Amino acid sequence: MAFLNLIPIPGLDGGHVIFTLYEMIVGKPVPQKILENAQMVGVIFLLGLMLLIFGADIFKIITNKF
Hints:
Blueprint: H1 2-5, H2 13-26, H3 32-63
């Protein structure tokens, strides 16, 4: 679980690490608008991934293909 949390998706801690590294390299913080948009994209990606996984499980249950 900890490994998955470090994936560089902006909704997870790995995304925050990338923005912190950017701030360390450039020397100034990432603009707030970019952070907000990245968070939104990350959450949409995670929700889509969850929908895909749950959809596949529900399909298996309905078709009885364990």
